[in-house]
Every structure is written in C-alpha cells, then in structure tokens.
Design a protein that fits this description.
By secondary structure, this protein is α+β, with helices and mostly antiparallel strands. It folds into two domains: 80 residues; 63 residues, no CATH class. The protein contains four helices and seven strands; from the N terminus they run ββαββααβββα. The strands form two sheets. Strands 3-2-1-4-5 form a five-stranded antiparallel beta sheet. β1 and β2 form a beta hairpin. α2 runs antiparallel to α3. It starts with a strand and ends in a 6-residue tail after the last helix.
Length: 165
C-alpha cells in the first residue's frame, strides 16, 4: 500500500480533495526529481467526515497501482511486439529481408503510437476505479533521508556516543 500525507482542502458531495504535502514514497523512489507529487491535489470520490485543513494519510491500494502500471506499460509493449512480429511474419512475408525488417519496424512504431490513444482512454476509466482510503492523523510527519524524523533509527544515530580522537 502506498501512503501519502496531506491536508484536506475541501469536503463536498463530489468527494474529498486532499493536497499532498509529504509524499512518503518519494524518498525511496528513483524518479522523484521528475515527479513532484508534493503540492498536487487529489480528489477522493468518497465523502469522508473530515474538516478542512485537517492532516490525513491518503492510502492507495497496491492493486490500483498495478492496474495503472499494466495499462501504462503493458499495452504499449504488447502493441509494439505484436506490430513487429505480426508485420514481419504475416504482412510482409513476401518481401526481401531488408524490406521486411524496415516495414515491420514501421508497423511496430505505428502500433505503439496507436496504443497511446488506447492508453489515454483506459486511463480515464482506471483512474476512476482507484481505491483510496483517508485516515486522519494528529500531525504530518517530516521525512529526512528516507526515514521519518524522530524515528528510532534517527534517535539511535544522534544519541550514540561520539569518540574524540
């Protein structure tokens, strides 16, 4: 389960809007520089009994993440492979080897581009099916170097005796 921390911006009949302030997963993520999840707002379709400006933990189920990953990466990959091999062995089997390779590559790229439109349509459907849960928290945690500030690990590092010389 992926957890993010944030502040409730709005609670309405349409759902609960949460502004992400402390993305917990970002400290471990390898592409955190290009993502910038902090500061983004997420609308959870369910209406929770929460107050505006209340700190919360937003949990996203692993099944939701896996389905988005499958749609985002699986469909284009399958389209590319199907375009390459389908064109090579079926469409252009009567051509010379060089022409078969080039034409099947072009067919694979065309299939890849066309799969982008399929992914865009499925993205809207899958995003609506995300399963979020919101849990109120007393305060937002501070994260440093992958560990919450004040954790047992951090206290052990700062409290150990120092040797001089």
């Amino acid at each position: 389960m992926i957890e993010e921390y944030g502040i409730v911006e709005r609670v309405s009949d349409d759902g609960t809007t949460v502004r992400i302030t402390t993305p917990a997963a970002c400290d471990r993520c390898t592409i955190r520089e290009s993502c910038y999840a902090a500061g983004k707002s997420v609308t959870v379709p369910d209406v929770f009994v929460l107050q505006q400006a209340q700190p919360v933990r937003l949990c996203i189920s692993n099944a939701s993440i896996l389905s988005v990953t499958l749609v985002t990466y699986g469909i284009p990959f399958a389209a590319l492979i199907a375009g390459l091999f389908g064109a090579y062995f079926a469409l252009f089997s009567g051509y010379g080897e060089d022409a078969r390779v080039l034409l099947s590559f072009a067919a694979g790229v065309i299939a890849l581009v066309m799969s982008g439109f399929v992914v865009a349509r499925l993205d809207r459907y899958v995003t609506r099916r995300f399963r979020y849960t919101l849990e109120p928290v007393a305060e937002l945690p501070r994260f440093q170097a992958g560990h919450p500030a004040g954790s047992a690990r951090e206290r052990a590092v700062h409290d150990r005796p120092r040797h001089s010389g």
